[in-house]
Amino acid sequence: MLIDINTYIGHWPFRQLRDNTAQGLLKQMDKNGIDLAITASIHGIFYKNLLPANEEVAAQAKRYRDRIVPFAVINPLDADWEEDLRRSAEEMELKGLRLFPQYHGYSLTDTAGLELIDAAYELNWPIQVPMRVVDRRQRHPMDWASDLAASDFEDALAARPLVKWMILDALGLDGTKMPPNASYVVEISRMTAVLQRNIQGFIETAGHVHLSFGTGMPFKMPGPALLKLDVLDVPKTVREAIAWKNAKKVLLD
Q: Whole-angstrom Cα distance, residue 143 to residue 112?
């Protein structure tokens, strides 16, 4: 089994994306042996009103709920974010939250960020936060967002250790600095299995239970992430945990 915790549906304003619909995502999943994928709306990064973005991702995923798990995008600086959250949970039956503080202008540990995180926790929703969406070396000049820092996640997990965190597109996290009592997984698509051996290093400092497979589709092709998992020098039980068991535990707990 293979669970991809890092995919998107929608258009990026700065370059063309392919297979960026639910049908396109499912095609890539079938082609690459991925059984289940968590997805969220790219439009939720840029729409002024985020509710339609969540409605769009819910509508696209409706036919494929056995394969695609849609998450909401909410901005806690929006005046009606509580209503967006309620409707995303009750009417659209979305299953988690993906946050973009670097685009929406808040931090994970300021008052606005923590209020939203606490509200999602009350729903028993996992909370995903990408360290970045696209490589800053290739960004359009109008894409001003900075990558989040490792310290942003260390502080957020320390502030809310009971939240089910999923850290996406992460690199440079130090397992020894992550709160030991926190519930989290780190997605591997930016990490390495050879050369720097980031994945093995994180296993040594934090444990394999804190890693999960992800691809970053449609921004990235799934091949490199699959290859990293395939060549990872760990026992089969560890590879299976990263491939799907750790993610499934977060989704079902």
A: 23
Domains for the chain: give ranges and CATH numbers. 3-252 (3.20.20.140)
Nearest to 231 by CA among 191, 175, 174: 191
Q: What is the pLDDT of residue 50?
A: 96
- Closest-CA residue to 71 (of 239, 211, 214, 222): 214
Per residue, what are the HEC states of 81-146? HHHHHHHHHHCCCCCCEECCHHHHCCCCCCHHHHHHHHHHHHCCCCEEEECCCCCHHHCCCCCCCC
Of 51, 135, 41, the closest CA to residue 92 belongs to 51
pLDDT tens digits for range 32-64? 999 999 999 999 999 999 999 999 999 999 999
CA atoms within 13 A on the CB side of 2: 18
Quickly count: other Cβ atoms within 10 Å of residue 102's Cβ.
Answer: 20
**Which residue type does 199 have?**
I
Strands (E), the chain: 3-9, 36-41, 68-70, 72-73, 97-98, 127-130, 164-168, 183-187, 211-212
Low-confidence ranges of the chain (pLDDT < 50): none
d(CA 10, CA 25): 11
